[in-house]
Automatic annotation (TrEMBL):
One GO molecular-function entry: endopeptidase activity
Protein's recorded name: CAAX prenyl protease 2/Lysostaphin resistance protein A-like domain-containing protein
Transmembrane stretches, start-end: 22-45, 57-75, 96-118, 138-157, 164-186, 192-211, 223-240
A Pfam family recorded for this sequence: Rce1-like
Coiled-coil residues: none
One Gene Ontology biological process: CAAX-box protein maturation
Domain (CAAX prenyl protease 2/Lysostaphin resistance protein A-like): residue spans on this chain: 143-230
Keyword vocabulary terms for this entry: Membrane, Transmembrane, Transmembrane helix
UniProt entry tagged with the keyword Transmembrane: yes
Annotated signal peptide: none
Length: 241
């Protein structure tokens, strides 16, 4: 038996015994959509009054993560969950390191093949894309903000929400892989980036696999953070050159 009171046999990982009911799931998904839509409309409204687009985009991004964190905390208080119930369970680094690095390499192969396919069809990301704007005109200050946002906040908050809460809740009703596909679609779609939907969907499936394989958020957070940090640094180098 581990510290959370779960019965374990030798070599068995702790399982997630808690689940959300349908009301919880609808409220969580409604809350996520409301946060995205509300902050988007608020940002567009402020842009008409205050012409500092990049500042407003950063404000939107940080407020989104803060709102997600508050949603998670609210659920924690209402349901009386521990952080372990969300998936924050210890797992040795030596156990997960090779798997995380191997799957990270796989996601890059997918990204490269997808980028080559888009290039062959003459498609390039639109200049109005919010990610292009945030990663453009890189300075030391904005690079730190990008790394903080993409490399730390987003992996911690989004993995807790999309894998720990949404996938964990859907799995109780739809089964593992149907829940994985649905949660990955939601994860990718809510980034509102059409040309990046497929590789982000694949990333979502890989993150679910890691979470389910080790019954812990640490591996998926590690891969998510690694993916975002490397992508941010590569984008910064390209922009500087």
């Amino acid at each position: 038996m581990d510290n959370n009171g779960l019965n374990l046999t030798d070599g068995e990982s702790p399982r997630c015994d808690r689940k959300l009911n349908w009301v919880d799931l609808v409220l969580v998904l409604g809350g996520v959509i409301s946060i995205y839509v509300g902050l988007a409309f608020g940002t567009f409204w402020l842009m008409d009054l205050w012409p500092h687009e990049r500042v407003l985009m950063y404000l939107n991004a940080f407020l989104t993560q803060l709102s997600f964190a508050l949603l998670i905390y609210f659920l924690k208080r209402v349901r009386s969950w521990t952080w372990a119930d969300f998936g924050w369970r210890d797992v040795p680094l030596r156990v997960i390191l090779s798997k995380v690095l191997g799957l990270y390499a796989l996601t890059w192969v997918v990204n490269i093949c997808y980028a080559i396919a888009l290039f062959n069809y003459g498609f390039t990301p639109p200049e109005t894309d919010v990610y292009s704007k945030l990663l453009g005109d890189v300075s030391g200050y904005t690079l730190i903000l990008n790394l903080l946002l993409a490399g730390i906040l987003a992996p911690l908050v989004e993995e807790t929400l999309f894998r720990g809460v949404i996938f964990g809740g859907l799995q109780a009703y739809f089964g593992k892989w149907t829940a994985a596909v649905i949660s990955a679609i939601i994860f990718s779609a809510l980034h509102f980036q059409a040309y990046g939907f497929f590789p982000r969907f694949v990333l979502g499936i890989v993150l679910v696999y890691l979470y389910d394989r080790y019954k812990s958020l640490y591996p998926s957070v590690g891969l998510h953070a690694l993916n975002n940090i490397v992508a941010t640094l590569i984008a910064a180098k390209i922009m500087i050159e």
